[in-house]
Amino acid sequence: MASASLQFFAFILALFGVFGDITATLLPNWKVNADVGSNIITAITQMQGLWMDCTWYSTGMFSCTLKYSVLSLPVYIQAARTTMVLSCILSAFGICITTVGMKCTKLGGDSDSKSHACFAGGVCFILAGIFGLVPTSWYTREIIANFLDQTIPESSKHEPGGAVYTGFISAGFLLIAGVIFCTSCFKKQQGAWIYPPKQHHFPSTEQESDTGYNLKDYV
Q1: Percent of the chain clearing pLDDT 90 (strictly above)
Q2: Is 119 inside any structural domain?
Q3: Is residue 49 part of a domain?
Q4: HEC string of 137-148?
Q5: Which residues contact 90 (CB under 8 A, 6 or more apart)?
Q6: What is the Cα gyration radius of the chain?
Q7: Residue 67 lies inside a defined structural domain of this protein
Q8: Can you tell me whether residue 55 is helix, strand or coil?
């Protein structure tokens, strides 16, 4: 029962990780630049994401521009696009597989098959967490490097946006969920190897008759 509850807790963490991963991939605020000017039409917030760049004006207007050209983008944005999409796909696969392999569900067949499915789902979550952690770390590193560069003007410097923090938290949830699923299945298999079932040997009746005394020969 404890293992089933732990798997259910890991499944909830994985769900939060999947939703956060998809949200971070689609959000346009991976880096944010705030400029307040004297003109009323001056943009007060500029956001850049993986797929689009958005601008918020002081009048309340909001406009976005899609990034159509892939080759014109920096390398870290291209890598972030690829790895975040892979993270979303792997985490979705992990949700489907662990749904079959969890102990609290009636899918997946016998206990060995469910254990293998649960382990495979945990591996998917771990890979998804790694794929989500790499682009957010790389993106944050580029933002900090540009912010500390003295040759770049202040108006062109940015700070990490909410999508980066969402990606970090989601990757952490996926990693924790994957480790819980893998260790719960590993402990079960390891216990089967370390503590094999005891086999009880019962002596046959012939051996007892040979070694014992026959009371019929005595008066």
Answers
A1: 41
A2: yes
A3: no
A4: HHHHHHHHHHHH
A5: 124, 125, 127, 128, 131
A6: 29
A7: no
A8: strand
User: β-strands 159-160, 31-34: how paired?
Assistant: antiparallel
Would you state the structure tokens that stand for residue 115, as one six-digit string? Answer: 């254990």
Q: Are 175 and 39 in contact (CB under 8 A)?
A: no
Nearest to 76 by CA among 45, 33, 30: 30
80 and 135 in contact (C-beta within 8 Å)?
A: yes
pLDDT for residue 103 is more than 80 = no
Query: CATH code at 156?
Result: 1.20.140.150
Angle at 93 between CA 163 and CA 111, to 5 degrees: 135
- pLDDT(202) > 60: no
List 55's β-bridge partners, or say none: 46, 63
How many residues are recorded in the chain? 219
| DSSP per residue, 28-64 | S-SEEEE---SSTTSEEEEEE-SSEEEEEETTS-EEE
Question: Is residue 190 assigned to a domain?
Answer: yes
| Whole-prediction pTM | 0.77
Q: Give the residue numbers spanning the domain of 161.
A: 4-27+74-194
Percentage of the chain beyond pLDDT 70 is 78
Specify the 3-state DSSP secondary structure of 200.
coil
Count of Cβ atoms closer than 10 Å to residue 12 Cβ = 12
Distance CA(85)–CA(194), nearest Å, equals 41
- Report pLDDT for 104: 74
Domain count for the chain, please give it: 1
pLDDT in tens, 3-12: 778 888 999 9
